[in-house]
Amino acid sequence: MPESTADPILSLLADRIVNQKVVSFHGEPVPKDIKAHPKPIHLSVGTPHHGFFPINGVNLDITLEPFGETTETVKVNKVANDATKELDIKAAFQYGPTQGHPQLLNFTKELIAEVNPPKYKDWDVTCTNGTGDSFNKVFGVIVNPGDVVLMEAYTYLPVCNYITNHGGITVPVVMNHTSQENPGIDVDSLTELLENWETHHPQLRRPKALYTIPTGQNPTGLTISQFNRAAIYNLAKLHNFLIVEDDPYGYIQLNDRVLKEEITPYQYVNELLPSSYIQYDTTGHVIRLESFSKTFAPGTRLGFVVGSSKIIKHMVKFADITSRAPSGISQVVVNQFIQAVGGVEGWINWNINVSKEYARRNIVLIETLQKSEAFKKGYMKVIEPDAGMFAIVELNFPPNEQEDYRSELQQLRCRLLESGVVVTYGSNFGISEEYSKKAKFIRLTIAAADDSSEIEEGMKRLGEGILKHFEQ
Ligand SMILES: Cc1ncc(COP(=O)(O)O)c(C=O)c1O
């Protein structure tokens, strides 16, 4: 029998996903009265015995703070002593469950329950090959050709590819990207757009989802307020669309307190980390994406998705016919690090230590730019980020009639290349041509430099390049 599409959440699934059949070679269930042998010999599936694996053990030399020396060696055993938390070679190097190995999956659930608990019971998690892969799965299960996804006007543009790849259409939502005053999505404008959708977009269906980066937004580095999150969640409920919350930067807080105080994980979670949209969720309208890329390592290609089990179930099915399980080798490395540092609390501590380094770098970025002549002469405004690894600099270009600053940004690019600094340009983050044209900002990251002194030198070069651009 088809799943009921009267259910508001299920009604948001793509047609091809509802009751999708995944075939396998396991055959029909056997009659219930068959008394199976308690210890059968498995001659069934093609899982090589772990004796065939050429690795007997791995030593992970871990550090407890970024740029730290090795402080501890964590052994990955061929066979775990206690498999409740420990992931071993035998399991990790084997075919694994599509949702992720139970040890890591349980950690993600504990993390969510402690840091960002939804307000309803029937939520679930699935591990993925990083957020890029989560995009494919989330939009793969909800987007029919012609479906609409709302996006912040300036955003992490590659996400659009996953939406259009499934035939979806992206529509921009007005945001405040140039100040700390009420940053992020403009709630009044979103409300008006939704109330008058048919007038604004008579040829389009009503939106199925809103994609948003709520904390340390890419590209702006800004964080939307709790008040606005609550209001947007209410809109999602009222107009029945999903909020796809992409939060790879949420755990990196740049607040002074991380540098000035000895923050405990409890204080970090309760006093510094913003509450996810999912903490407002009573209905399953929020899908939260987390990634191990930014505070562990991007090469793990590991992330996870939290949401209503009604949606997660279909994402797991979708994974069965696309990526299958995330790499067990990545999972064992991440899991054994997390278990070695002490589970959820240790993971939060690691994130505090990561944040300390980012906060130090951020201060150098802001202060060096503010000392520059270009800043003092009013050629630029630095938008101070509060989380993550990006900051934007708004340039005070003279207004032009067409409101098109792309060639000015291109000229600035040449000056900055001459000055010896590479940045990213606002026009490359606009969700539509209109927003690309209007962008007058550049995006800087504090993530890639060797150290703070390299950031200082980069900011000096940036200041010089901007000065040259305005005065030549
Ligand atoms: C907002 C945002 N989402 C997702 C990603 C990609 O995450 P992952 O490495 O987990 O695929 C990035 C990477 O820069 C990002 O900025």
From TrEMBL:
Its cofactor is pyridoxal 5'-phosphate. Transmembrane segments: none annotated. GO terms for biological process: aromatic amino acid family catabolic process; lysine biosynthetic process via aminoadipic acid; tyrosine biosynthetic process. Residues 71-462 form the Aminotransferase class I/classII large domain. One of its GO terms (molecular function) is pyridoxal phosphate binding. Keywords: Aminotransferase, Pyridoxal phosphate, Transferase. Pfam families: Aminotran_1_2. Signal peptide: none annotated. The keyword Metal-binding does not apply. The keyword Transferase applies. Belongs to the class-I pyridoxal-phosphate-dependent aminotransferase family. This is Aminotransferase class I/classII large domain-containing protein. It comes from Wickerhamomyces pijperi.
